[in-house]
Amino acid sequence: MGNGAPFALGLFAALWLLAGLWAVGRGVAMQRRSAFVAGQTDRLASLIEASPQLPVVVRADWRVEASERLGLWLGLDRGPRNFDELRGLDAGLGQPEHEQLRQAILGAQRGAKPFMLSLRPLGGNRTIVFHGAAAPQAVGGPGSVLLWISDATDGQQSLAQARREREEAMAAFAALSGLIEAAPFPMWFREPDLRLALVNTAYVRAVEAKSAAAVIDDGTELCEPVAGVSATDAAEAARDAGSAQQRTVPVTIEGERRIMRVVDVPLAPDGGRMIGIAGYAIDIQELESERGAHRRFVDTQRELLDRLSAAVAQFAPDQTLVFANQPFRRLFALEADQVAETPPFARLLDAWREGGRTPEVRDYPEWRQAHVDWFARAEASEEDWLLRDGMHLRVVAQPTPDGGLLLIAEDRTEQVQLAGARDTLLRVRTATFDNLFEAIAVFAPDGRLHLWNQRFRRLWNVEEHRLAAHPRVDALMGGLADRLAKPNQISIVQEVIRAATLERTQRAGEIRFADGRHFDFASIPLPDGNALLIMLDITASRKMEGALRERNEALEAADKVKTAFLSRMSYELRTPLTSIGGFGEMLQAGYAGELPPSAKSYVDAIMDSVGVLGRQIDNVLDLAQGEAGTLAVERAPVDVRALLESALADAKDFAKGEKIELAGQLAEGLGSIEGDAPRLSRVVAGLLDNAIRFTAPVKRSGGRVLLHAEGDAERVEIIISDNGPGMPDTVAAVTKGTQTGTQSGGIGLALARQLVAAHGGTMEVMSEKGQGTLVRVSLPRGR
């Protein structure tokens, strides 16, 4: 036992040492674990502090275990220690929110029902989200509730923004869908595999389908394949290109062939994955028709512009020349190939300046830029260009709606010259009016005085300022009646002017002024509706007319005395001439016995002189009766050929004695006329006698007289011509009835003219000095 005690004591000590070592090891391990737990706790606390959510424990006695951050979130001065401290007057939760949270916590305590509340503290714009549920036993004990609180202010705003954006997107999508559905042209959408997924009503109507679903199920395409390219091929090309593709194809729309512009648009938002192909088709049939019509209109317009006299050019929006008509090319020396090169407007100005087709200016660059700026103006510009060669151009620049320019140039050189001439003419007219012998006034259609000359003013003795007021004719003439010898005659002047202005008829009259002057006046309607009043002073002509009338009366009396004298003298001469002729005939007949040869020759001479004197007396009587208008002509059938042949036979011996060739050319069918045969014989005989007598003194050899006659159903023409010296004063002599140098008593041509006129015919005398004389007598067949 003695030996066992130490062993036991050593065993106990060893066990005690082992226990101490275990305890030390356990303590070290526990210390290490404690340090690890403390570190973990600190890390978890840091994580909790850094977490966007804050854990809060509400115990059964409504004590609150939470971080100080809860007070900051709720706007409190410090972190709450019990539930009631969550409520404040101007911070924390309001009474309704506090009570709402209390009821939610009670529900979680009783039924372990989790909840979530979004509450807004007082005095701020924060939104606090409370997630609550029953707390684990190890956390808060029985009846405790664990709250996870998060500040959802930014999240709520983002959520509200997202909701608004979503609502706006939905509204836009609805509006876009409605717009696509209401679009009057076909629209569609294809899936990435190019199958139709959406079509609008216009598409359905265009392909004459029952519904959009039927179109999608059947895959009905709007466009037929053109040149081997189908609608899906075009969509695939757009998908491969990654950009919109368009084409113009014919499409049958509701049974009618139309031209459509089809566009395929690949849809890949922000360059991401392809979501499909959208497409639409626009009917451009009217556009193409209008484009063709516009093209034809432009061609017709340019053809018309080529026919205009004005120079016209068109410039495109880029200021290049696209058209110039022929007058423009001629005016500015442009060739057709130059126009085809579409030169710019500025370069054309430079070329025109070198060719003298622009006006001379001091600062050409500034002038050039000002004219280039025509394209930017909204209104037309108009200028007058005076060129170096004196040509005047009127240039009009009209901007076109497309940004181009229409340039019109008109050569107004002639108009400017005419305007100058017109101004000169107006000045000349004014000077002429004022210096005319006549008094002139022009009245407008309303009766107002329009123009007048100074003679008119002086004639009526009217002040200039009164005429310058352009008074009406009744007001003007009413105050001038006292200028006339008979004042009531002023109404005649007014009536004449009224007739010219209103009735457009010309009238005339005569008035006498109080000072004894006489005036003829007339009103003449003018083409512009005005009336011209002309007043002519005829005082001198009135006096001359009186003198002429007195002289004429004296001449008429003298003419009567002369006619009576010629008639009486002819009668007195014819009586002894008849006795002489009678006794001469008795001597020739041998009543006084046989006469010796010498006595016979004397008697023959006496009888010849009696015949000549008898004819002269007859001529004097006929001439006197012709001048008095009492010449009586017998009317009986006259054989024209026999009459002319007899006249040729009677004149043959005289012509032969004067060594003049006498010839006759008498046409067949001369027939007869009604007339006085003796007097016609005297006419032809007298004309032949004059022709022989005028030709003989000059043409002692080679002289020739020709009697030519021809006729038709209406008239007979007798022509007697000679190649003598001619008669320089023939016309005067015939008019006066005398013929200088004749030996036929000086009355041959005058008497012949009167006898021909008495037969209803005409006599024409043509004579040229040194060439001869021709007398044409034209006689009618009947009366």
UniProtKB/TrEMBL annotation:
The keyword Cell membrane does not apply. It holds the Pfam family PAS_7. Keywords: Kinase, Phosphoprotein, Transferase, Two-component regulatory system. It catalyses: ATP + protein L-histidine = ADP + protein N-phospho-L-histidine. It is an enzyme of class 2 (transferase). One of its GO terms (molecular function) is phosphorelay sensor kinase activity. Its EC number is 2.7.13.3. Residues 568-783 form the Histidine kinase domain. InterPro entries: HATPase_C_sf, HATPase_dom, His_kinase_dom, HisK_dim/P_dom, HisK_dim/P_sf, PAS, PAS-like_dom_sf, Sensor_HK_Regulatory. The keyword Phosphoprotein applies. It comes from the Bacteria. PROSITE patterns: HIS_KIN. This is histidine kinase. It comes from Sphingopyxis lindanitolerans.
